[in-house]
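TICKET #2291
ISSUE: user wants both folds in one file
ATTACHMENT 1:
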Amino acid sequence: MNCPYCGKQMKESYIQSAQQLYLNFGKRPRLFPAGDLTSRSLSRFSLTKAPFVKAHYCDDCAKIVIDLNEGKQNRKHSF
């Protein structure tokens, strides 16, 4: 994927956490975002696999791009 800011090739990477990942729309981070109906889950919770979402990272711009449609597919797989 090419960076939408500078046009250079981005590095394929993963953002992972010990807990489920959420996108919070315009609100301060919450301790329990799952209860917030305006938050969007980016990863699926699992007791046996670390939650993750595939991302692309640009070294030059220090930007991360996450394709939310691609993330739906990634939630079903582990690496």
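ATTACHMENT 2:
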Amino acid sequence: MDIDGQRGLELARTIADAEDLRVGTTLSEEDVASLDRQDEPYRARSRALYLLATRDRSSAEIETRLSRLGFGSGAIEATLEWLRELGYVEDARFIRRYAAEKARAGWAERRIRAELVRQGLDRELVELSLSKLTEVGSDAPCGSSAEGNLSAEADSDAALLAILRRRFSSQLVTDRDVAGRKIKAYLARRGHDWETIDRLVQRLKQEDKEGSADEVLP
């Protein structure tokens, strides 16, 4: 559509049909401003869908991105409500997926929690979602809660040890001391406490000793 014979204007079809607009229609600046306000929520939706096409995102991230692009608070809130109704945005789901992904990468729960809160996720929702994750598979038919905690710790250690063996396999063979320092730094960056770090490093050292002993057996 021409605006004073100079440039075109792109609008959502819903608005164009409602206003009975056609290609070649001449609009005043006031008309353009009014149509632009009506079209803003549709542009915000389009941009949000573009962001979601690459990966799952939290409502806080979408709000931040849309705000940086110049969308108003009304259009942003309407877009988020629309996305939630369609199931395209769900913060609890985002937290679960994010936590599972980072746990597979060796992150400690406290580091995951801190990063989610830093990203703007509601703290209570983060706590609730993470607590539900840790409860999965924890309802054993018998045994004390202490035994359950020990079992969970053993499972966590096994997963972390697998990551460390895979990531530092060559260094553990060529230079154990350097590997030990790098492993400690790697785990610390991912939020693990020193008790956990020391336990895992000692476990790797013990495995190394046992492996060396096996090599010299007749």
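RESOLUTION: both attachments delivered.
EXTRA DETAIL ON ATTACHMENT 2: The radius of gyration is 27 Å.
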